[in-house]
Amino acid sequence: MRLVNGQPTDHLNLTDRTIQFGDGVFRTLQVQDGRVPFWSRHHAKLAADCAALGIACPSEEVLLADLHRLGVENAVVKIIVSRGESARGYAVPADILPTRMVLAAPLPAYPSALRDEGVVIRVCDTCASWQPALAGIKHLNRLENVLARREWSDPAIFEGLLLDRDGLVVEGVFSNVLILRGGQVLTPTLAASGVAGVMRGIVMELFAEKGYTVIPSDFLLAELLEAEQVWLCNSLFGLLPVRMLGERNWQILPLNGALQQTLADRCCQESLSLR
Amino acid sequence: MRLVNGQPTDHLNLTDRTIQFGDGVFRTLQVQDGRVPFWSRHHAKLAADCAALGIACPSEEVLLADLHRLGVENAVVKIIVSRGESARGYAVPADILPTRMVLAAPLPAYPSALRDEGVVIRVCDTCASWQPALAGIKHLNRLENVLARREWSDPAIFEGLLLDRDGLVVEGVFSNVLILRGGQVLTPTLAASGVAGVMRGIVMELFAEKGYTVIPSDFLLAELLEAEQVWLCNSLFGLLPVRMLGERNWQILPLNGALQQTLADRCCQESLSLR
Fold first, then answer.
1. Residue B147: phi, psi to the nearest 5?
2. Per-residue pLDDT tens over the stretch A69-101
3. Which domain covers residue A33, as residue numbers?
4. With contacts defined as CB-CB under 8 Å, which chain B residues touch A23?
5. Can you give the pTM of this predicted structure?
6. Shortest CA distance from A24: residue in chain B
7. Same domain, yes or no, for B159 and B260?
8. Option in B12, B80, B173 nearest A11 (CB)
9. What residues in chain B have per-residue pLDDT under 70?
10. Distances (CA, A) of B275 to A30, A258, B74, B181, B234
């Protein structure tokens, strides 16, 4: 089921600027048993990303009406907000109206073993771009993620890390990264590259609640390899520890289990019912 | 008139990866009196850009059939090649088929005074991103061009320059840049940013034929300001000298007139008739 500006359709006008330029932003979120975890945070991030690019963001009411119309109980929902339609050329007409797309897809299965035993990751050859004007924003210019994801086909590899031009860790292809090191939790600043996901913010709060100092701070791959634990997070799989990267193996710390429980609780508490 | 995979339509499937990720490349070219200037070069560049991203490029025959079907005598034609349609997620299915879009728009008017007297340009605050994996390719991730173009609305300003993180000149929002300095012609290398346009290659040849040494070489804005002449080029307006940037004014050199004549001749010689 797919909606464009609230109407069921499988098509988009060819004059839409997402097709021409990737001129828009998006959100990927879950619907679980008719509830949307962290809905308010997702809308706040969508609004912030739209504001950063000068795109008019649909209101919470409008998007919730779309989610109701979509009528899914369990699904991945992708919300895309385009700057709108325009004639040829980069210039934006003054009266442009945003296009909103709401698309449902099946929920992928993430076995609980991934949360308990961790995942295997690799380092991508594709670098994260340097572009402070777009850093942090979940925009539709995602070619570097596509290229990075094309680097491996081994299903045993869960995720690939992107480094920036200086060798600093930025993110995974579809996740954010946090490391525990010397009793502190570090996560890349995303000041010049990458996407600052909603789950990253939630997980930073969880660590802080457990008494850890959480610092947005850039680190090299070598520093990640020396970490006591590495985690990935996104809005679909939540939080996953890393058990292997190349020759480096990690034991999964008891802290991971405590975080998983707290995240599951938070997910229930902070979800919105669509019923 | 618009075609998707050869069929007249105004719509694209929502599962197309141009919408999701900007996962494709494009060409903007002219049809003038039923002829396409530099067609072979445009197709060669489209094929090279597709190859760089691992996208299957439609053959010259297929695209020429589309251009015939389009049936335009005078138009701007945009050819978009998408990696194709896929389910949610960055991973690319092995059996994916490219989507080709061929879109016609009215030819914009470029008064001959622009070629003879030059244009006024500015410097954008938006920087060009650093991303060697995408540099040179005319791909669909064009948000930075959109943001740069939003910086000015004064119609007296023809174009804006993008600098990279080190202050080196990369390109204009919709054009390439060449400068004449100390008897040499320099144009940015585009090794880590920007688009290497078809007209850039043609203009480099023209300068070489006139006896100038043409060097792909990066230069700072200060060096551009010291140039004897600055030109912009793209496939729609051809070659335009710059007459003003901020406080700096340039006299248009006689060389410009000679280049314009040679380019007009070349454009006739190297064009393909659609009739």
1. -65, -40
2. 999 999 999 999 999 999 889 999 999 999 999
3. 2-105
4. 142-143, 146
5. 0.97
6. B143
7. yes
8. B12
9. none
10. 54, 72, 12, 43, 25
